[in-house]
Structure formats: structure tokens, C-alpha cells
Design a protein that fits this description.
468 residues; alpha/beta; UDP-N-acetylmuramoyl-L-alanine:D-glutamate ligase; 2 domains; 12-stranded mixed sheet
């Protein structure tokens, strides 16, 4: 992967990165040529010599559109260009002058094979004028395929919120770097396949990163179950959830997984899964635990409060999920060691309340996760259709869209088990969270459609094998 190809930039960061290239002596026109030519290659794969309609705006995104148009024309495509307004920037004017075809008025727009949206790219902060929004909808409806260049028009790049009506695209071609909207709902669901065109931007230390396949290793030649990592999973009033987490954890790298607490006696366990039914404090006196998982099926009664307190007080790195997230508060956090929190939307809201944070329903999950990570001094895995992993030091990973079949009961328990297993192998919390989220998504891909949580857990070993 080229340097910087996995980074996600805000509008301000992207502008600064482009200015850095310009200051280094690369003209804006050259950057536009790189972006447009690269985008044209992706569009050519869909259109070939078919009929392509490109809607160009007045800014540099429109300039990219003129470059795309000329590149496709030279290759033999039948290109129609519609200009929403005359080019307003010098680079866009140069690109318009280089276009060897004519410009069609909006009221003459027809159908075709591929519609390319170059009206507005990243940086848009207000809704697109209704007439242009209507034209975009018309063009999307009258073409077989739709492609957005950089981000779809009417999308806020930094938070993924639609500013107005947005059709569904088959492909979105990011220019220079990924933007937050590419991995943030609801915008991400509208973008179709994602592709990136490099224009020479290097890595930035302040950038978020796209979650990528981890590099894992087989056990050392002299490994045994304890050197690979001992994980304890605390059971509660619904122990089946803990067993499900354990099924995933046993396949995600830890050498030894134990269910802890008297509730495990209520389960029919596979022979390889050990249950320690002693009082939790006594069980945790074994100093070999590398990680604990608390929350799946824990309950919220007095016993659950006590179990969470004992796990946190042990100082062992913990993954907290489900009920444990509802019980966590700042006082309990102060007694704990390293923490990974795995909230979904509702649990994230409760954690915000517990830690005195203002809830903003319109704020993207990644921003809320980053705030909670900082205040709670914990790695936060905000899970859902667009997972975000925020570290207390400011690091951020966004996961590509995963299988929608993960919207099934128990998939969160599987994720918690995988992350806890990675933590038990001595991965640092941020690394364990990132590895766990990737393995979870890959297991879902391997499981195919309509899987159960148990079927998902059964694919974790195959997902792990893909990383060796």
C-alpha cells in the first residue's frame, strides 16, 4: 500500500495536505490532472465505450469532472458534460479549456450508461440547491450506474450526514485520501463500492486510519497454553452469552479460556472449555490471567455489580461489554487497569451519561467514541454498521462496511470474545481492539448469508488463518 493510502482526513487536513504539495512546487492543475485521470480509470472499467454523463460544478470538483471527461473521450467513451455553472477557479477553467467536447445544458440531460457526480466534493457545508439536487436524482435514475467523485454531492464530508436528498451510488472514488464520510453512516450506505486515487499526499501523524488486515503469527515453537495467554470470561445470570464469547475467544489466539463463576455450572460445555465455579475473587487469585472479559450475560443485580468490581480491582486488563457497560462509572474506572469498552449506540449513550458527557445525537460515532476514550482513559470500540476504534491517546481506526448479516443476536458477544482473546495474547489494548474488529468482519464474510452467532464464532479460526 502506498504511503498514506490508509489514512482518513478531515476537510481541513486535506486542504492542508494539498497546500503542502502546492508549496513543494506541484501546481494545482497537475494535482487536478492526477485526480481526474485516476478517477477516469475507475469509471472506464464500468463504462467502457458506453455513454457517460458528467455533471460538473463550478469548483475544483467540477474541474476534476472536465479532466475525467477528456480522458474518457480520448479512450473512446461517448461523453456528455453538463455544467451547473461556469468554472470559478483557475484550475477548473484550465480543465474546462482542455475539454474537447461541448457542454450540454441541464434541461437537455438524457440517459446513458454511467452518471458521474462532480457537482460538489468534500467541503460542502450547506444543502445543494433544489434544482441541482433534482437533476442529480434524475441523472441517477436514467443511467444504469452512478459514480460519485470524492464524495457524493449533498454529503457532509467530516461527519457523513446527508445535507439533502442523496441517491445511491454504485461507486465512490475518493481523491487524494479517504474522508470520514466514506466510513460513516448514514452516508457510507449510499456510496457503493469505494476506490481511492493517489495524488501524492504523504502520511500525516494526525490522521485516522482505515482498519486493515492485521499481521498475526503462529505460536512460538516452545509455546504452551499459558504463554499464549490465559483469558477469563466472567459468567452471569445468562451464561449462554459468556459461552458464545468463549467459543469465539478459543479460536482467536488465546491458549487457554476459562469461564469464571458459579453460573457456568448451568451450561453444557465442550470438553476444551474449562469452568472455574469458585467464588470470583478466589478464582482471580491465579496470577496468570492476561485478560478478563466481563459483561456478556452478566446481569445488573447486586451480584453483577460485585463481579464487575472484583474483576476491575484485580488490575488485569479487561474488556467490558453489554451489562458491564451499564454498570461502569468513573469511580469504578479509577480502580481498574487497562480497559477496552465495546458499546453499541444505546450503550454509548449510557456511558456518556455516566461520565458526564453531553449527548449529541447528530454527532458521528467516531467523534463520540474519541471523546469517551479520552475521558474514560479506555479504548472504545463503538460498534454498529460503521465501527470506530478510539484510543485514549487520540488514535482512531474506522472499519470498512462489514456484512449486514452481523445484525443478529449474539454477534456482539462474539466480537467481545475475539477482542478479549487478542488482549490475552499480550496485544496492547488499541491493537487488540483493531485486530478483533477485523477478525469479526472477516468471520462474517466467511460465514456467508443468514448465519447465527454460533456460526459466526465457528468461522473465527478461518479468519485468523487469513492473517498468518
Amino acid at each position: 500500500m502506498p504511503m498514506g493510502a490508509d489514512q482518513i482526513l478531515t476537510v481541513a487536513q486535506m486542504q492542508a495536505a494539498e497546500q503542502g504539495l502546492i508549496d513543494a512546487g506541484i501546481p494545482v492543475e497537475e494535482l487536478m490532472q492526477r485526480a481526474g485521470a485516476g478517477a477516469a480509470q475507475w469509471i472506464w472499467r464500468i463504462a467502457g465505450r458506453g455513454a457517460v454523463t458528467i455533471l460538473c460544478g463550478p469548483g475544483n470538483n467540477g474541474g476534476d469532472g472536465y479532466v475525467i471527461a477528456e480522458e474518457l473521450r480520448r479512450r473512446g467513451a461517448r461523453v456528455t458534460v453538463i455544467a451547473a455553472a461556469a468554472p470559478a477557479t483557475k484550475a477548473a477553467q484550465v480543465a474546462r479549456a482542455a475539454w474537447q467536447g461541448r457542454v450540454t445544458p441541464p434541461d437537455a440531460a438524457g440517459g446513458g450508461d454511467v452518471f458521474v457526480d462532480c457537482l460538489f466534493g468534500s467541503g460542502l457545508t450547506r444543502p445543494v440547491d433544489n434544482r441541482w439536487a433534482a437533476l442529480i436524482a434524475q441523472l441517477a435514475a436514467t443511467h444504469r450506474h452512478s459514480v460519485a467523485v470524492d464524495v457524493p454531492s449533498n454529503i457532509a464530508s467530516d461527519d457523513g450526514q446527508p445535507l439533502g436528498p442523496v441517491p445511491r451510488y454504485d461507486l465512490t472514488v475518493a481523491l487524494g485520501a479517504w474522508k470520514y464520510a466514506h466510513f460513516t453512516m448514514p452516508a457510507a450506505a449510499l456510496m457503493g463500492r469505494l476506490a481511492l486515487v493517489e495524488i501524492g499526499i504523504g502520511s500525516r501523524a494526525d490522521a485516522a486510519l482505515v482498519l486493515d488486515k492485521p499481521q498475526l503469527a503462529a505460536p512460538a515453537a516452545d509455546a504452551h497454553k499459558y504463554t499464549r495467554g490465559l483469558l477469563g470470561i466472567v459468567t452471569g445470570t445468562m451464561p449462554g452469552a459468556a459461552r458464545l464469547a468463549a467459543e469465539a475467544a478459543m479460536r482467536a489466539g488465546a491458549g487457554y479460556v476459562r469461564l469464571l463463576g458459579p453460573h457456568s455450572r448451568d451450561l453444557a460445555l465442550p470438553a476444551e472449555l474449562v469452568a472455574d465455579e469458585r467464588p470470583l475473587a478466589e478464582a482471580l487469585s491465579d496470577g496468570r490471567y492476561r485478560a478478563l472479559l466481563v459483561g456478556p450475560g452478566l446481569g445488573r443485580d447486586i451480584g453483577a455489580h460485585a463481579a464487575l468490581g472484583e474483576a476491575l480491582a484485580s488490575g488485569t486488563p479487561c474488556v467490558l461489554d453489554a451489562d458491564a457497560l451499564a454498570l461502569l462509572d468513573p469511580e469504578a474506572r479509577q480502580r481498574a487497569g487497562s480497559l477496552i469498552l465495546t458499546p453499541h449506540e444505546g450503550e454509548l449513550r449510557k456511558l456518556e451519561q455516566a461520565f458526564g458527557l453531553e449527548h449529541d445525537a447528530r454527532a458521528p460515532m467516531h467523534r463520540r467514541a474519541a471523546t469517551l476514550a479520552s475521558v474514560a482513559s479506555a479504548v472504545v470500540v463503538a460498534k454498529g454498521p460503521n465501527a470506530a476504534i478510539a484510543a485514549p491517546g487520540g488514535g482512531m481506526h474506522l472499519a470498512p462496511r462489514a456484512s449486514p448479516w452481523l445484525s443478529v443476536a449474539g454477534s456482539g458477544d462474539v466480537l467481545a470474545g475475539i477482542i478479549a482473546s487478542r488482549l490475552a495474547t499480550a496485544a496492547d489494548p488499541d491493537q487488540a481492539a483493531a485486530q478483533g474488529v477485523w477478525l469479526h468482519g472477516e468471520a462474517a464474510r466467511l460465514a456467508g448469508p443468514a448465519f447465527t452467532a454460533g456460526g459466526l464464532a465457528g468461522q473465527v479460526a478461518r479468519a485468523y488463518a487469513a492473517c498468518l
